[in-house]
Specification:
The structure holds two protein chains of two kinds. Chain A is of the alpha+beta class. Chain A is built from five helices and 23 strands. Chain B has two domains: 82 residues, Gyrase A, domain 2 (2-Layer Sandwich), CATH 3.30.1360; 138 residues, Beta Barrel (Cyclophilin). The two termini of chain B are 29 Å apart.
Chain lengths: 354, 241
């Protein structure tokens, strides 16, 4: 029998995502992919998968799942509440940002995600689902992806592996390199299509993430940005991070599911290092912006990648019986000095720490 | 034509822009540079290049800032652009697409005929006369923007966009024609229906048309439309024209 993870309740907007459907933009085929590449990378690393393996992207809240395999190793990257119910009826709370080995019949319920729009659930070995144009990513507007290109519905998700070797499990021991402070922008490609004070307004104002945001774009509420002439341009290519401004003057920051071309002037582009942070932003969050050069943006991205690699290299083993591996903690502390020790797996973390 | 200039899209892309998109010549230069860049990548050059998107006035160059820098790639592409500007362009591929303008498939034919002062037959004749140039593919997978529409058919987009335009719809707006490859919302004027598939993820490549190709519409009657729609033969370039 095919090993599966059975989605009993899919969650509000759960979809399969990886690093995107890359290389097809000239045919109008959008990239899609994870809103938060850092979260996707962590979830995969915790279960030992290659970095771009397809995961479940959970939005706002997660699914209710049952394990229909001998055993499976899972990890949830992101601040969500996870509860496990064994077939014996025993219940416990599981910490996120570490791996867990589950057994047949285990029920896993992933509750609200606190402080991030998205979280990622990885399974060791990945899902046994054929990629479409080289990717498991789901583009909701075009209905493009395996499983019909839709958000997931209740049903079985086939797994590549029927069992997971016993431990050690792995846990995150240092903060992920999301960055902080103002979101960094490179002015252009059409900054000259706006009034001279529009860029200054963007860089000196506070904008709020609008409720009509989705995987295609984040609507920003704040001071309007005025065009010198028409808002419409002859359509040209766009990438995630572009801040396009329609005629009403309210900017839209394009995200993972953006179309490949667009006909509105774009005043600036958020740098790639800040896209994971933007992908996690919730309606109501406040954003400020700061201008950088292309060369600065490239350097920031490379530094972020090195910091991410350091995070993944320092994932610490956890002993399966629930005790903290003191030796591993000590090693991690020697490296990072950032171990908090508050994720001890037996004692469920209090609501405030999840 | 003004010399190309380069505009920034953050640290993952830049665009080499040739004009304002209203002149047909920049589109040809874009397609040529895209072809040359693909060739260079196939032979191991342009490390860090992720994707190329030819558009009506520019070539979008998407790169990976972890393996390339904007400065390096921009310099390499400028050199390539100088070389392609000297070379004779390869002959474009040509396609003939059947279109049925029966009233069931042409809900806006009467309105376009009225707005342009041309009769319905003249609208169809003018739609099917030009050899269009695929200016770019965007908006939807396989949505080809066709430049070269007869100026007599130039109309603004509909004031009330339709929530659902059926797949295959042949449509016009402003200076362009297009075919909707899948059902989608749309504000263009619908003048007919093409029975062939323009995007299928199971094909290689999944979209047969590419920027720089030439496209002509060939009117077909409802019987021929039904026969083609039933078998959906794969679109092949026309070797004759």
């Amino acid at each position: 029998m095919t090993p599966t993870l059975d989605l009993l309740r899919p969650g509000p907007r759960t979809s399969l995502q990886d690093l995107g459907r890359i290389g097809w933009r000239a045919m109008g085929i959008p990239v899609a992919g994870a809103m938060d590449r850092i979260g996707l990378g962590l979830a995969n690393a915790l279960v030992g998968n290659p970095p771009g393996t397809g995961c479940l992207e959970l939005t706002l809240s997660g699914p209710l799942l049952r394990v229909a395999a001998e055993s499976v190793r899972i990890a949830l990257a992101g601040p969500a509440r996870i509860s496990l119910t064994k077939t014996t009826g025993e219940r416990r709370t599981l910490a996120p940002d570490r791996s867990w080995r589950l057994e047949r019949g285990d029920l896993l319920e992933i509750g609200p995600i606190n402080g991030s729009l998205v979280a990622y659930l990885a399974v060791e070995g990945g899902f046994a689902i054929a990629p479409l144009l080289g990717s498991l990513s789901t583009h909701l507007a075009a209905g493009l992806g395996p499983l019909g290109g839709r958000t997931l519905e209740a049903g079985p998700l086939p797994l590549c592996r029927d069992n997971a070797e016993p431990g050690p499990e792995r846990r995150l021991t240092r903060p992920l390199p999301y960055g902080d402070g103002p979101i960094r922008l490179v002015p252009g490609p059409q900054a000259d299509a706006f009034t001279p004070d529009a860029l200054a307004t963007l860089l000196s104002s506070c904008y709020q993430v609008g409720t009509r945001s989705d995987r295609m774009g984040m609507r920003l509420e704040g001071p309007k940005l005025r065009h010198r002439g028409q808002a419409d341009i002859v359509s040209d290519g766009i990438v995630a991070g572009c801040l396009q401004v329609p005629g009403d003057g309210s900017p839209i920051l394009l995200l993972a599911d953006h179309q490949t071309t667009g006909g509105y002037a774009k005043i600036a582009t958020a740098i790639s290092a800040d896209l994971p942070r933007l992908g996690r932003a919730l309606p109501g969050d406040r954003l400020e912006f700061r201008a950088v050069t292309v060369a600065e943006a490239e350097a920031v991205r490379r530094a972020q990648e090195r910091a991410m690699q350091d995070c993944l290299d320092s994932l610490a083993p956890v002993e399966e019986n629930g005790r903290i591996d003191l030796a591993a903690l000590y090693r991690a502390e020697l490296i990072s000095g950032a171990v908090t020790g508050d994720e001890e797996p037996v004692a469920p973390p209090s609501a405030g720490t999840i | 034509m003004r010399p190309p200039h380069v505009i920034s899209l953050g640290d993952t892309a830049f665009a080499i822009e040739y004009g304002d998109g209203l002149d047909p010549e920049p589109g040809a230069r874009v397609a040529e540079l895209a072809a040359a860049a693909r060739k260079a990548r196939q032979s191991g050059g342009l490390i860090g290049l992720v994707d190329l998107v030819p558009t009506l006035r520019s070539l979008l160059v998407v790169y990976d800032p972890l393996t390339a820098s904007r400065a390096e790639l921009e310099a390499a592409l400028r050199t390539l652009d100088d070389a392609t500007a000297q070379a004779a362009p390869p002959p474009p591929r040509r396609w003939v697409l059947p279109v049925c303008c029966d009233e069931a498939f042409a809900p806006d034919l009467a309105a376009v005929a009225a707005a342009t002062g041309l009769g319905p037959d003249a609208v169809i004749a003018r739609l099917c006369a030009p050899a269009y140039v695929v200016g770019m593919i965007g908006f939807l997978p396989g949505f080809a923007y066709l430049t070269g529409l007869d100026p007599a058919l130039r109309l603004p987009r509909r004031a009330d966009p339709r929530p659902r335009v059926p797949a295959g719809s042949v449509a016009i707006a402003d200076t362009m024609a297009a075919i909707y490859p899948s059902d989608s919302p749309g504000g263009w004027h619908l003048l007919g229906r093409c029975p062939l598939t323009l995007f299928d993820p199971a094909w290689s490549p999944p979209v047969p048309l590419a920027a720089g190709d030439r496209v002509r519409f060939e009117p077909v009657d409802p019987g021929r439309f039904a026969a083609l729609a039933a078998t959906r033969p794969r679109l092949e370039p026309d070797p004759q024209r």
